[in-house]
Amino acid sequence: MMKKTIPIMIAAMLLTVTAFAQEAKTIQLPKPNMSGGKPLMQALKERKSVREFSSKELTPQVLSDMLWAANGINRPELGYRTAPSAHNAQEIDIYAVLSDGLYLFDALAHELKLIASGDLRGLTGKQPFVKEAAVNLIYVATLSKLGNASSEDAAFYAATDAGFVSENVYLYCASAGLATVVRGWVDKTALGKVMKLRPDQKVILAQTVGYPK
Ligand SMILES: Cc1cc2nc3c(=O)[nH]c(=O)nc-3n(C[C@H](O)[C@H](O)[C@H](O)COP(=O)(O)O)c2cc1C
C-alpha cells in the first residue's frame, strides 16, 4: 500500500510543478520601436476595419510595438500611458489571446504573462475570423480602480477609455500595414468566466489584429 502511494505522490508533485512552470510563462517583449511608421495624417487616412486575416503570427517586435502603442508607458517618470484614462485610473487591462494561450499585458514590465494555455482564440468572439487571426486583444476594465464613481459613470469611463486604446491600435495597424477590427459582438459573460475575471472586472471590447489576408 505504502510502496504504491509514494510513486503516485511523486508523479502528482511533478505534474503540479510542470503545470506551475507552464502557467508562470512570460513573454519578454523586445523594446518598443518608437520611431518610424507612417506619418499620423497618412495613418488616419488609411484607418479602417478589416475582417479578413492571414494566420501568420506577428513578429515579437510588431507585437511589442502594437501593445506599446495600445496602452504602453510613454512617460516612464510619471507612469503615464499612450491612452488617456479618466482620473488617470488606468483601469483598462489588455489581454492578448495568441495561438498558444491567453496573456495579460504588463505595461510596466513590457511583457506578456501567461494566464491560460491553449488556443482560446475561438472564444473571443462570434465572427469566424477570430480563430484565424494572429492576435485577439480583450479590453478588460477593473471598475474598482475608478474609485467612488457611480456604476453609471464607471461604465461610461471604462467604455470611453477602452475606446482610446482601441483607436491607438487602429492607428498603429494603419501605420504598420496590419489589419484590425474592434468588436463588441462577444459573449462577454462566457469570456469573463474563461478568463477567471473577478466580479469588479468586465470585458468591454475585443479587437482582432493580424496581417491582412
Ligand atoms: C464599439 C464598437 C463595436 C464594434 N463591434 C464590431 C463587431 O462586433 N464586429 C465587427 O465586425 N465590427 C465591429 N465594429 C466595427 C464597426 O462596424 C466599424 O468601425 C464601422 O462599420 C465603420 O467602419 P470603419 O471602422 O472601417 O470606419 C465595432 C465598432 C465599434 C466602435
Task: Tell me what you see in this structure.
This protein is of the alpha+beta class. The chain has 5 helices and 9 strands, in the order αβααββββββαβαβ. The protein has a single domain, classed as NADH Oxidase (3-Layer(aba) Sandwich), CATH 3.40.109. It is 35% helix and 24% strand. The strands form 2 sheets. It has a 7-stranded antiparallel β-sheet, sandwiched between helices. It has a two-stranded antiparallel ribbon with strand order 2-3. Helix 2 packs across helix 4. About 5% of the residues have low confidence. It binds flavin mononucleotide. The site of flavin mononucleotide has 9 residues, from strand 8.
List keywords for this structure.
alpha+beta; single chain; 7-stranded antiparallel sheet; NADH Oxidase; 5 helices; 213 residues; binds flavin mononucleotide; two-stranded antiparallel ribbon
Radius of gyration based on Cα positions: 19 Å
Mean pLDDT: 92
Instruction: Work out the strand percent.
Output: 15-25%
Query: Could you say what the CATH architecture is?
Result: 3-Layer(aba) Sandwich
CATH topology grouping: NADH Oxidase
How helix-rich are the residues, as a percent range? 25-40%
